[in-house]
Amino acid sequence: MVRMGTALCLLLALACRAGAPPPETERAVERWLVLGDSIAWDGRWVAELQMWLAHTRGAQAPELVDCALPSETVSGLSEPEHLRHGFARPCLHERLARVLDGVQPDFVLACYGMNDGLYLPLDEARQAAFRAGIEALVAELERRGLAFALLTPPPFDAQRASAPAGLDYDAVLAASSAWLVAQRARGWTVIDTGAGLRARLAQGRAHDPAFTLAPDGVHLDERGQRAFAACVAAALEHPDGARRAQAERELEARLATFDPAPARELVTILRDAWLAHTGHARPGLPPGLPLAAAQERARTLRAALLDAAQR
Questions:
Q1: Predicted confidence band at 85 (pLDDT cuts at 50, 70, 90)?
Q2: What is the CATH classification number for the domain harbouring 274?
Q3: Terminus-to-terminus CA distance in the chain, angstroms?
């Protein structure tokens, strides 16, 4: 197993601080940063959340910046099999400082865990690396005085995945999620999206045994991305947990009535531009527009999104 390790990732990140851009002038609305792997990089749940914010907060809706990266871990771990893609898994901590310096978020949503178990059986060393990576992420966010919410990973659908026979990878994700949820006792905001999606999956399979939210077992489809966004929105709307499950179902149904096109283009344009602007170690991604051009286009798309939300 190839292991970069969280400590080395952090050293690389510190080495990049000198090139940080100067602070921006004051913004009219908050900026929320999304960190994660390919499930967040996909952008659809981020766009769904952006639509919900536009409908509920109007012109004061935060701007969401999706800086998730496919294949990424927070643990610094990678597996030899991943080298068939031509690269080891990137580590968030290699780029975290550059992203935070560049985006300058007011709030951070982060979802890791799916890749950190390396699609292998439950193992304490890998779990410890995941926990250390999350601890380092939270320490940096707290050092900067940033509000944040950690999201548990979505479930692994063994019925659909091409995983080795007998591998219960969802048990790995459940262990990571249980540790994250336990950190609420430390004052961390943790949204248990994994539990919400497991409930949604069970509900669907009660009516159709072939029902799935992730056709390949990992990557959420249209319905899964919307359900994920509904879990996040319901948690933000009901932080005390009251009516959370009912709110998730109601929000999923409501999101299905929105036209997703403007929000998806808005999220994608900003995602590609910010990833290119802040830099990363993951080859093969779209180059994106120069940041200034992307932000200009984003202003037009945001206006269209807000106009549609007010109708």
A1: confident
A2: 3.40.50.1110
A3: 54
- Does the pTM surpass 0.85? The reply is yes
Torsion of CA 92, 97, 98, 101, to 10 degrees: 140
Q: Flag whether 172 is in a domain.
A: yes
Q: Which amino acid is at 78?
A: S
Q: Tell me the backbone φ, ψ of residue 277, rounded to 5 degrees.
A: -70, -40
Q: 3-state DSSP call for residue 117?
A: coil
Q: Are 224 and 156 in contact (CB under 8 A)?
A: no
Residue span of the structural domain in which 249 resides? 6-17+29-309
Number of domains in the chain: 1
Higher-confidence residue: 220 or 85?
A: 220
Q: How far is CA 41 from CA 147, 208, 223, 255, 263, in A?
A: 21, 29, 16, 19, 14
Can you tell me whether residue 290 is helix, strand or coil? Answer: coil
Report how far residue 233's alpha carbon sits from residue 58's, in angstroms, rounded to the nearest whole number.
15
